[in-house]
Design goal:
With 257 residues, the protein is α/β, with parallel strands linked by helices. 32% of the residues lie in helices and 26% in strands. The protein has a five-stranded mixed beta barrel, surrounded by four helices.
Length: 257
């Protein structure tokens, strides 16, 4: 814990008042962080807009204080933000993101709740050895599943492939670089056979940080691409998927013991 202003997130523990929050909802997109805070929180106030890592504090309807924070894109940025959130006293973090399904039965618009991650991320290797498990907190994960059931949101629980890059690392060839390294050819099919549900870019590092720093971590992602059909994001279903993920995370945070 620290009483000094954290360099990247731009606030300190004293800024959190007499009822400092212990839980944060973490989004890669600052617009999503703003949306969450101004849709679901009461008495919202901006903590910082430093470096685009916008953070807001407010209260859930039951009076629980909470932060909506921004991690930026990718694991290196997330690792910095999470480290500093823990420094100011945060003990539970739920990542709210987007992902691409790699299983044909998981449609765009649904959500994936990650129980663990196949972690192929350089940032995570600075936190713990490759063999260190990237596992979500089971209690926080169960809270997400209960919330999805209560809200009647179509959801899937399982293992996520958490990788560093959006294009090459997820075997996309419709990009500036259509020539993938040989090690990446067929990797999506390999992951499908390992019963991995989806691709995303942050939760593996988040889960390892949780284990090492001893805070509870979980992740829920809206499905915005169906990779068994196309490499492209399905824009018409993106808002549905994101709103389902947000509602699930907020409900879980509200009903935590």
């Amino acid at each position: 814990m620290t009483n000094k202003r954290c360099y990247h997130i731009g606030f300190e523990q004293e800024d959190l008042g007499s009822q400092p929050p212990k839980i944060a909802l973490l989004s890669g997109d600052p617009e999503r962080s703003h949306l969450i805070a101004h849709t679901y929180f009461q008495e919202v106030r901006l903590l910082s807009a430093n470096r685009g890592l916008n953070s807001y504090m407010g209260y859930l309807p039951n009076g629980r204080s909470i932060i909506s924070a921004t991690s930026g894109m990718g694991a290196p940025s997330l690792s910095i933000v999470v480290n500093e959130l823990v420094q100011v006293g945060i003990r539970q973090i739920i990542r709210i993101g987007t992902c691409g399904s790699i299983q044909p039965h998981i449609p765009v618009g649904s959500i994936v709740i990650s129980s663990a991650a196949l972690c192929r991320q350089g940032a995570a290797n600075d936190i713990a050895p490759v063999e260190y498990p990237a596992a979500a907190d089971p209690f926080l994960t169960v809270a997400l599943v209960k919330a999805a059931r209560e809200l009647q949101v179509e959801h899937y629980l399982g293992i996520t492939a958490s990788v560093d890059t959006f294009y090459e690392g997820q075997e996309r060839t419709d990009s500036a670089n259509p020539y993938l390294m040989r090690s990446l050819h067929g990797i999506t099919e390999e992951y499908q056979r390992l019963n991995i549900l989806n691709y995303e870019m942050e939760c593996g590092t988040l889960f390892k940080l949780g284990g090492v720093y001893q805070f509870a971590s979980a992740a829920v992602c809206g499905v915005v691409a169906q990779r068994t059909i196309t490499e492209n994001i399905i824009e018409t279903h993106k808002d549905i998927a994101v709103n389902n993920a947000i509602a699930t995370a907020v409900n879980a945070a509200t009903n935590l013991d």
